């Protein structure tokens, strides 16, 4: 027998067997190819070139996004866990093979920032699980869509693109985002759409959302903001007054920001500007009828025509009601007559007056009650400077302290009045411009100084009779008989002789004579003196009966005069 046909020795066979086992050992932990040789119930029998086949559950060949039946003869890739188990079968897995393949592909996509395809197949705490062709990733709820979605069911089981946000192979963690893909796609679409739009262009849109400040309008893949101030020329309190969700409308592109892709829209710009020629249409001082549209703390807005509103400031609402809320004077939707006070076409403002359509109550009062007229009213208030009296026409007049009494201090007289008292007064002056009415109570009676001056009885040097009103340590308060004047006689004016200058010599109600030492109508002062009267009488007696140089007193002179008179009898 030749050497070529010589059978291998036992040693050669052992060496070959060892070599075969070493090669098989090297395949463990890797993906290998195999052929389906049989399908038994729910298991596929796969030959991977080892001495025994392996079995893989059929469910590992199905799953989200994977369709089609497995047949005998199909070639598949599986992961070789172990060459054989206790039963002598190869331990293989289709899931692990797919996962291994997926991780390699996913890592490459992650490095290149490429999108990957996956299928959402389950909901977990905080989000969802996504099958990335064998690898399982986590999709946070915040990354599902650009806006929150209540029902994700339509998105489940559907192959769609995702962006890998984070990968950790050691821990087996993958985090993906669907929102990033949508935003990127949306940004690209927006850029393309914005590039085809121009400011001033009129386009069709659909209202998709309404906020306090405006409405978002879908222009066919890109949204524009229709601000509340651009919805109408008139005042719009809330966007829902003009538009509704789902409404189709034409809008004008006012402004485009090509960097942020923000688009500002307008409806009112499609209409003629009602403010053009406004000054000629609404001249100052002209009167118009309008509708109250809004009431604030500082006034009320009145619509004169669609798109044209004016403000009645609270100060222009009533002639007499100064500190009242506008809502107490007018109400929303009320038709009112107003007067144009000012028109500012630049600032688009019209100032209106409500009170100007009514007669000025101060003018009406001055016509009905000229200066000198006597009026009657209720004391509304007492202040440190006078009384306020309520008068006809819902106006107030003021009686100053100085006009309460001719003689007594106003601070003293005002205490005699209280709120609610009905009093009469004389109209002194009506200032229509300043809205002031001056009244006087003391003017109801004649001026005692004027009367006294007219009579001539109180000129300086005249002798008058006085009635003691009050006795004080410093002198006497007296009333001059025949007049309404009172004055004060100081202690040192009560007598010529010092020992007689005692106020207690007199009593209230007692009458006495005195000489007028001063009567000044301008300063309204009158002074009388007993001392001056005594000195005047002495001077007159001396001049008539004797000389004071002899040292005789007034009593001596009068006594001598009396004796001569008796002898003459």
Task: Give structural notes.
- There is one protein chain.
- This protein has 569 residues and is of the alpha+beta class.
- It has nine helices and 30 strands.
- It has helices at residues 10-27, 94-112, 179-195, 278-281, 361-368, 410-413, 448-455, 530-545, 554-568, and strands at 30-40, 43-47, 54-57, 75-82, 91-93, 115-124, 127-132, 135-140, 160-168, 173-177, 202-210, 214-218, 223-227, 248-257, 262-266, 287-296, 299-305, 308-313, 335-344, 349-353, 374-383, 386-391, 395-400, 422-431, 436-440, 463-472, 475-480, 486-490, 511-520, 525-529.
- A hairpin with a 2-residue loop joins strand 6 (115-124) and strand 7 (127-132).
- Helix 8 (530-545) packs across helix 9 (554-568).
- It is elongated and about 195 Å long.
- It starts with 9 loop residues before the first helix and ends with a helix.
- The model is unreliable at 1-5 and 19-23 (pLDDT under 50).
């Amino acid at each position: 027998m030749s050497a070529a046909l010589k059978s291998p020795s036992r040693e050669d066979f052992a060496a070959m067997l060892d070599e075969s086992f070493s090669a098989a050992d090297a395949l463990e932990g890797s993906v290998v190819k195999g052929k389906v040789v049989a399908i038994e119930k729910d298991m596929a029998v796969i030959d991977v070139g080892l001495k025994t086949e392996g079995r893989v559950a059929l469910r590992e060949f199905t799953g989200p996004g994977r369709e089609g039946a497995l047949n005998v003869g199909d070639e598949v890739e599986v992961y070789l866990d172990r060459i054989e188990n206790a039963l002598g079968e190869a331990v293989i897995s289709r899931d692990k093979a797919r996962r291994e393949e997926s991780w390699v592909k996913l890592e490459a996509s992650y490095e290149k920032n490429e999108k990957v395809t996956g299928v959402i197949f389950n909901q977990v705490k905080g989000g969802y699980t996504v099958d990335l062709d064998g690898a399982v990733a986590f999709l946070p709820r915040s990354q599902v869509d650009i806006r929150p979605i209540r029902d994700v069911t339509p998105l489940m089981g559907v192959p769609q693109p995702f962006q890998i946000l984070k990968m950790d192979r050691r821990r087996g963690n993958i985090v993906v985002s669907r929102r990033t893909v949508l935003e990127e796609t949306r940004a690209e679409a927006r850029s393309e759409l914005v590039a085809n739009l121009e400011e001033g262009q009129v386009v069709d849109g659909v209202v998709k959302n309404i906020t306090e400040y405006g409405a978002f309008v879908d222009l066919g893949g890109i949204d524009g903001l229709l601000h509340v101030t651009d919805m109408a020329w008139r005042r719009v309190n809330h966007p829902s007054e003009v538009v509704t969700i789902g409404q189709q409308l034409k809008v004008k592109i006012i402004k485009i920001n090509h960097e942020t892709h923000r688009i500002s829209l307008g409806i009112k710009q499609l209409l003629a500007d009602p403010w053009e020629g406004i000054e000629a249409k609404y001249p100052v001082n002209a009167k118009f009828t309008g509708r109250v549209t809004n009431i604030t703390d500082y006034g009320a807005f009145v619509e004169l025509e669609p798109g044209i509103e004016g403000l009645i400031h609270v100060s222009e609402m009533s002639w007499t009601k100064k500190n009242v809320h506008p809502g107490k004077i007018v109400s929303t939707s009320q038709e009112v007559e107003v007067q144009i006070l000012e028109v500012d076409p630049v600032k688009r403002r019209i100032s209106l007056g409500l009170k100007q359509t009514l007669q000025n109550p101060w003018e009406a009062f001055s016509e009905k009650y000229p200066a000198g007229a006597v009026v009657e009213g209720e004391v509304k208030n007492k202040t440190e400077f006078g009384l306020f009296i309520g008068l006809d026409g819902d106006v107030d007049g003021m009686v100053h302290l100085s006009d309460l009494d001719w003689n007594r201090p106003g601070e003293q007289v005002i205490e005699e009045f209280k709120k609610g008292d009905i009093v009469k007064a004389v109209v002194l002056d009506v200032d229509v411009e300043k809205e002031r009415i001056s009244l006087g109570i003391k003017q109801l009676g004649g001026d005692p100084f004027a009367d006294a001056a007219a009579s001539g009885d109180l000129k300086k040097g005249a002798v008058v009779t006085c009635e003691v009103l009050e006795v004080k340590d410093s002198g006497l308060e007296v009333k001059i008989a025949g007049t309404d004047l009172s004055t004060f006689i100081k202690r040192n004016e009560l007598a010529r002789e010092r020992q007689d200058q005692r106020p207690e010599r007199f009593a209230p109600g007692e009458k006495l004579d005195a000489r007028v030492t001063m009567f000044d109508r301008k300063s309204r002062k009158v002074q009388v003196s007993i001392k001056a009267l005594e000195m005047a009488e002495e001077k007159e007696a001396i001049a008539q009966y004797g000389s004071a140089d002899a040292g005789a007193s007034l009593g001596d002179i009068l006594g001598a005069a009396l004796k001569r008179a008796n002898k003459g009898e």
